[in-house]
Amino acid sequence: MDKKDIYEHLAKIYLDASQKKKKKSKSYLKYKNIIFVALAVFIVSLAYLVSNYFLRNAKPANSEIALILTPDAVKINFHFDPAKKEIYSLNLNKLNASRYKTLGFSVKNVDYQDNVTLRIEFSNIFKEKSEVYIKDITHRWQNYLIALADFKNISDWSEMTNLSFIVEEWNVRGKKGIVYLDNIRLID
């Protein structure tokens, strides 16, 4: 073997080894890129799922989900000369109230010298009625939250027909006056 053959042989070995090394590094980079992209997609998907879960299931601390039953203030003007009671009634139109837990409203009496007692009554399609009394309604706005469980005679809340607010003659001192109701709502 002469010098030229040795150089060619060494060059061939070197070039073959060099090409194998390049092939290895290219395939290594290819797998590394695939793994990196797959890991990035997994992390982004996981972050999306976790954030969606918390956004759907988390409620802010001071929030309530409510069904507003009256958009404006309501006036009950009572005059008990011939009448014995005055009623403001809301037609609930077979409302399914089973998901709600509380009735909320604000109330005030116009006469600062008179304390009024208000009867709140629910009725359903099965002719079940139940009432709760609110005593000593003053001339300042008061907020009330009444648990629906306090309406003991209602066994089925799935088809409610009426919600009534009643001022009765025997529950006021004076023969006439005005009671205002506002923000009547069912709270989840």
Can you offer a commentary on this structure?
With 188 residues, the chain is α+β, with helices and mostly antiparallel strands. It has 2 domains: 1-58; 66-187, Jelly Rolls (Sandwich). It has 1 helix and 9 strands, in the order αβββββββββ. The chain has one helix at residues 3-57; strands spanning 66-68, 74-79, 85-95, 102-109, 116-124, 129-137, 142-147, 160-168, 176-187. A hairpin with a 4-residue loop joins strand 5 (116-124) and strand 6 (129-137). The longest helix has 55 residues, at 3-57. The mean pLDDT is 84.
Salient structural properties:
188 residues, alpha+beta, Jelly Rolls, five-stranded antiparallel sheet, 29% helix, rod-shaped
SSE layout and pairing:
Blueprint: H1 3-57, E1 66-68, E2 74-79, E3 85-95, E4 102-109, E5 116-124, E6 129-137, E7 142-147, E8 160-168, E9 176-187
Antiparallel strand pairs: 1-9, 2-9, 3-8, 4-7, 4-9, 5-6, 5-8
* Dominant shape: rod-shaped
Count structural domains: 2
- What is the CATH first-level class name of the largest domain? Mainly Beta
What is the CATH homologous superfamily assignment of the largest domain? Galactose-binding lectin
In the CATH hierarchy, the architecture of the largest domain is: Sandwich
Find the count of extended strands (DSSP E, 2+ residues).
Answer: 9
Structural Rg: 38 Å
What does the largest sheet look like? 5 strands, antiparallel
Low-confidence runs: none
Terminal-residue CA separation: 96 Å
CATH topology description of the largest domain: Jelly Rolls
DSSP helix fraction = 25-40%
Round the mean pLDDT to the nearest integer and report it. 84
From N to C, what is the helix and strand string? HEEEEEEEEE
Q: Assess the beta-strand content as a share of residues.
A: 35-45%
State the secondary-structure class: alpha+beta
**SS summary, helix count:** 1
